[in-house]
Every structure is written in C-alpha cells, then in structure tokens.
Amino acid sequence: MTITLDDARALDARDPLRAHRDRFLIDPDTIYLDGNSLGALPRASRARIAEAVDEQWGRDLIRSWNKHGWLAAPERIGAKIAPLIGARPAEVIVADSTSVNLFKLLGAALAARPGRKIILSEPGNFPTDLYIAQGVADALPGVELRTLAAGAIADAIDEEVAVVLLTHVHYKTGRMLDMAGITRAAHAKGALVLWDLSHSAGAVPVDLNGCDADLAVGCGYKYLNGGPGAPAFLFVAERLQAELNSPLSGWMGHAAPFAFGDDYAAAPGIRRFLCGTPPILAMTALEAGVEEFAGVDRDALFAKSRALTGLFIDLVEARCAGHGFDLVTPRDPALRGSHVSFRHGEAYPICQAMIARGVIGDFRAPDIFRCGFTPLYTGYGDVWRAVDILADIMDTRAWDKDTYRIVLPVT
Amino acid sequence: MTITLDDARALDARDPLRAHRDRFLIDPDTIYLDGNSLGALPRASRARIAEAVDEQWGRDLIRSWNKHGWLAAPERIGAKIAPLIGARPAEVIVADSTSVNLFKLLGAALAARPGRKIILSEPGNFPTDLYIAQGVADALPGVELRTLAAGAIADAIDEEVAVVLLTHVHYKTGRMLDMAGITRAAHAKGALVLWDLSHSAGAVPVDLNGCDADLAVGCGYKYLNGGPGAPAFLFVAERLQAELNSPLSGWMGHAAPFAFGDDYAAAPGIRRFLCGTPPILAMTALEAGVEEFAGVDRDALFAKSRALTGLFIDLVEARCAGHGFDLVTPRDPALRGSHVSFRHGEAYPICQAMIARGVIGDFRAPDIFRCGFTPLYTGYGDVWRAVDILADIMDTRAWDKDTYRIVLPVT
To answer: Are A105 and A234 in contact (CB under 8 A)?
Structure first.
C-alpha cells in the first residue's frame, strides 16, 4: 500500500528543510524534476547578479577586481563547495567547465605517473568524460583510454594505469560507485582516481578526504544551483597539489599573474589549476547558488534525497504497475544518487506527455525516463502529484500522440 | 599648438558616433580610459541579463536550451562578432576563455602540421599567450616555444615552424603588427598563424579573410563590452575547419551531443571548437555587448580610434613636456591600436594619482602608464580633461605621495 497525497503533504509539513523551498523561484503550475540537469533559480541570486552588473561592473568597473573580490572568487566559492564534498577549503576551486577541468586533471595525472599510459573508465560514462579522455589520448603519444564495466574496474587496475576516471553517480542510471573501495584499489597499484561529482555534489554524501581521494571535478549548474552553464569546480588533494601541473597553464594559474613575466611559474596551491580570466557574472550566480547550502543540515539533506527517490520508486511501481516501467536505478538507497531512471520503450513520448502536463523530467536516449529530486526544494507532495499524473498518462495512453514524438535537441 | 577644451567639445558635437555614448553607463565624475581592460556596461545589457535570469533560467528552466536559443548562442554570437574582424559568420564561435581557446588552436595547429615542432612567438607577448604555449610545449613531446623580436619573425619562419602565435595589437605598447605580411611569410613556409585579437576586435580594423588568416582568438570583455571575464571567441578559416581538431574534445563540440554515444565525433563546422556547456548568463551579457556595434559605421569607428589616440599623444607631449614621459606606442596611426602607452619611471604613482582624481587608466609593470580609448563611448572632451588632470598632477608633483605607492594587484 502506498501513501496518499495527504500523507505526502504531511511529510512536507514535517520536513526540516521546508523553508528552503521558499528561497527558490518555484512555479506552482510546474513540478520540476530536472534540478539534476539545471537547478532552479534561488530568489536571492537575482539581486546578487543585478548588483554584480550594476554596481560592480557598471559603477566600479576595473576597480572591482580588488574592491569586490573578483580576483579571489575562484577559491572563495571553492571553499564554500568544499564542505559539501568532504574536502578542505584550499582543495577546491571554481573554474571553466567540467569538460575543461577533466582535461586539466587527466593531463596532470598522466604527467605525474610517467611511464603509465592507461586512462581507465567505464563504457557509458557521461559522454564528455569519455570524449575528453579520448582527446587527451589522441594528443599524447601512447596514451590510451580503456573502458571496462564499472564492477570490473577495481580488479583491473594495474601498474599500467595512470588514472581511473569515473562518475560517482551515473548520469543515466543513478547508480553510485564505491568511492572508498575503488580509490583504495587504485592506490594499491600506484594509480590516481579522478571522480566526476556532477550528479553528486549538493545532493548525496561525498567524503573525498575520508576516501583519501586524489582528484575530482563537478558541475555548478545542477544541485549547486549556479545557473545555466555555471562554472564548474575541481578538487586536488592537498598532498598532490605541488606535484601536479595543469597542461592549461593560463595566466590566472601563475604564481604572480600581474607581474606579466614571460615565463610560466605555477601558483603554489590550488590556484595553479585556474587558466583564463574567471567569468564574474557567472561566478556571482554560482556563489549565490552555493550559499543556499549555508546552515543546511547535511544529514537531513541527504536523508531527504533518499526519501524522495525511494518514494518515487515505490509510487511508480505501485501506481504504474503493468505499464512496462523497468527500474534502472539501484533499489538500495545507499547505492543510488538523487535521480531515478526507469526504462520504457516509449520513454520519449511519455516524457513529452509529462512535460505537457507540467511535470519536467527528462529523457535519456534510447529508452530512459529520468527524474531528479533536489532535496533543497523538491517536496514529497511534488513526487506524489508527479506520479499521479504519470499514472493517468499511462492509464489513458495519453502519451501515444504524434505530437509527443517530435524529437527536440534537449539537454 | 594644441586644441582647447572647447575645440574638443566641438569635436564631440560633430562625432557621428556621439549617440552611442549614451547607450553606456558612464559616470560623469569619472573619465574611464580602461575599456581596453574591461569595457563599460551597456545600459541595454542590464535588462537582457535580468531577462535571462528571471524568464529564461527562473521560469522556463531547462526548456530554455531550445526555447531561448541557448544551444545556438555560441555560433549566433560568433556570427555577430565576425563582421568586426573580417570573418564569415560560420568562422567565429564564442567559447571558454582566451587562454583555453589558445590551447585548443595551438594543439590543433601542431597536430595539423605533423613533424613540425616549433611554436614561434615574441618575447613580451601577452603573458597568457606565452604561458599557454609553454604548457602545450611541456605536454607534447618535442614541441618547443621559440621567441624572437616581432620584427624578425617573418624572416625566421622556416619548415620547422608549425604555428606562429602573435598578438595583433600589443597589450603593453599598442603596436599593431602586419597581419597580411606575416601571414604571407608563414604560408610561404607551410606554417599556420594564430592571431590574438584581444586588443583589436571592436576598436581597430581587422580583415582576417582579406589577410588569408588561419586562426585567431580574442577577448569578450574589452572593446566588445561583454562584462568581466566574458567568454572569448575563436576564429578558424572555413578552409581549415575540417582538418583541425580541438584537443579539448568536450561534448558540445560533438557532431551529435545529445545522442550520448561513447565515441567522440567532431561536429562538422566551427562547433567542433566548443568544449563544455556554455555559460549562458555570461553569453547573454556578451551578446548584448556585441550588439552595441549593430548599425555602427565601422570606418567612422576606426577613424575615431585613431583620432582619440592621436589627440592623447599630442596633448600629453604638449602639456606634459619636460616631465619625463616617453611615448612607447607608434606615432603612425596605421601602426597602433586603440590604447596609448607612455614610459615613465614613476608610472605607478602617477597612475594612482590619476585614479584618485577620477581618471582610470592603468599601469603595466615595470614603467608603463597606459590609457585605452573606446571609440564607441570615449569622447574628445574626455581625452582633453584627462590630460589636463595629468598635466596638473605632473606640474604640482601630486603623484609624489606615499599613498600612491601602495601596490595593489590590479589587472
């Protein structure tokens, strides 16, 4: 037996994070289950961005690099992300995109493991992770990207492997990998591990230092609420910072960028992983987004993620039984992230029919219907109503219209 | 004999670009001569950014990738920059930072010239250009960065040179290089040329196609008015696009990024030089900045740049004669960009004293006082008043205070 809408609303009323929802712009006519693709707009971000535009850029102009802390923004925001991922403040910096940061850290890892030529990943990893690794392999003689099913990775790491590249929570399946175990296996063979935290940071527990992690990257525009295409972050364990060098040795990573000398000398700490001039308006939005986590009880946050995803699974399986949905995401809450995927042969028109009814989830080719649950602002009532609409769409075959089959290039 | 303030004001009154000044937020108490470092805020940008935040991100969320043209923004904005630099619309794209784009194109150029191992540049080129080239040389076996005085470059290009990396208008001296001549010399030896247009685009004539140019990058936050740390642009001649591959092969450069396949396949045209997800808020500001050039008579724009810089040189040399200023920038207007640099042993405190009087120019180590003139919004009266203040500071030795010697890490 599953819960009623009243039960779900009672859960919302008791939710210790309830007040955070009001800090976001939430359209009452929409149930937004795509915060894992683009986080909602924090109300406070609007004024922060307007201030950066009007007062910082418009009025103070070039003086803002010092006066408004633009220069320090990359490590200041990194330090605010650090507690969400179990890192020390000086181990995280905001820069560029996830893709660019993957390139920096793969290049740095390969150079730090001379003689080792293998990047080890899994097939079906998020495409940009594999694409960037392929670009690194094409650029550097002898380097090879090898892929193996995630379950086989720990045993396959050997002395040829320079770096293991894995996504902590899989973008499509929602499966969470054993960060501590894989890191231990890699270290036993002298290899480094680079974790992509794009679908983890801000939604599920991550303990980089507790796992003795080496390297990580992650996305600013999903659970961190940084806005569309927000700058990304990267993590380099303090013990590795001095020996790792970014191949993207731009001026902002220089020890003395404003000395304008001809010779590159990497900054001593995490700043060496900066490259070009930071995009201040985008950084401002990201900083405001990350600040939404200030004062949030992280145990309550992560418990709510598990409760929301669990409720969605239970309700879909109860209310849509017999409609051909096949759960892809692990049933064990300790093994999954904050999104849930069901396989269905008609996933695309079903997703479009849901959007037409105001429930924004997403489709991942070829047959995945995926819904994300952002514990800061998604409610139990949202989950209940979303499944209620899904059940109605399935019961009435409302998805079976030509208009829902027109494929749009959505992200 | 030099002109009077009334003469300068009469020039402003006759200026065909006069109306454009009112489109920017200009503080009446400031004379801003640093648009070559950070362009002023276009008034229209404020509403555009607020719309992107409130309506696109806040209301339409993930749907905006299609509905508001986020996906197409990189090439849409690139096409608007193209006419400013003599390129075809399909040859320019907005992406990442200038530094990251330098890495992409240096890597692509070296791969396209197998067997050639030399990147040829000049000492004193903008630091990030040299730093990135050093990073490329460190990452790729056998590749070497060689530097030679700019005047010696054309004759020194030989069959070992893969790519020549030069800045069209030098950030410190304002000297403009002969793009056509150097490109011709490089092509005669089978080498490519990568031009950095950061101090050129939007301020001085650039004719990439007329020069048969190969590759270029440039900055969005200077004369293009894109806001602090705005995304940069890159140019790849259409004839080269199919054979050049970015080493930063991120998902946005894929031929079918939303097919989520495991294997990288570069997009057919200029989009292959994208890497990660574009930063939409920053792109929005850049697009609004670039649109300030719509309907601007480019001949009038570039003529005004030469007139402003010429007036500044004349007035400083007349009004500050005997105070030790040494012109670094070429006197021939055809050989200079839109900023003027004077060498002076006390350039730092002089620059600080000017800022204290509301005239924002900048200092470039060790001894350069540099002022930029943005033809869209700088007036002849601004130039006159700036030099009047400079003359007063020099005549009264007002710069000679300890407070003006406190060195700040300004950009």
So the answer is: yes
Cβ neighbours of A283 in B, within 8 Å: 229
Task: With CA atoms as reference, report the closest residue to A164 among A177, A173, A175.
Answer: A177
Task: Determine which of A170-174, B213-217, B280-284, B401-405 has the lowest per-residue pLDDT on average.
Answer: B401-405
Count of structural domains within chain B: 2
Task: Tell me the residue type at B130.
Answer: L
How many Å separate Cα B170 from the centre of its chain?
10
Residue A411 lies in a domain: no
Cβ-based contacts of B282 with chain A (< 8 Å): 229, 279, 281-282
Determine, yes or no, domain membership for B410: no
Same domain (yes/no): B88, B14: no
ipTM given for this complex: 0.97
b/e burial code for range B69-91 (CB count within 10 A of at least 16 → b): ebbebbbbbbbbbbebbbbeebb
Distance CA B45, CA A53 (A): 9
ω into residue B366 within 30 of 0, thus cis? yes
Q: How many CB atoms lie within 10 A of CB B207?
A: 13
* Per-residue pLDDT tens digits for A301-335: 999 999 999 999 999 999 999 999 999 999 999 99
B394 alpha-carbon distance from chain centroid? 31
In whole angstroms, give the CA distance from residue B98 to residue A276: 7
Q: What SS3 state is found at A39?
A: coil
The domain spanning residue B314 has which CATH number? 3.90.1150.10
- Determine the Cα–Cα distance for residues B28 and A221; give it in Å rounded to an integer: 38
Query: Which structure tokens are listed for A173?
Result: 């399946």
Cβ of A228 and B56 within 8 Å?
yes
Task: Please confirm, yes or no, whether A126 is among the known catalytic residues.
Answer: yes
d(CA B126, CA A38): 36
pLDDT tens, position by position, A130-161: 999 999 999 999 999 999 999 999 999 999 99
Instruction: Give the 3-state secondary structure of residue B196.
Output: strand
CA distance A23 to B327: 56
Q: In angstroms, rounded to a whole number, what is the distance separating the alpha carbons of residues B213 and B201?
A: 15
CB contact, 8 Å: A196 with chain B?
no
Helix and strand element counts for chain A (H, E): 14, 13
Are the C-beta atoms of residues A46 and B53 closer than 8 Å to each other?
A: yes
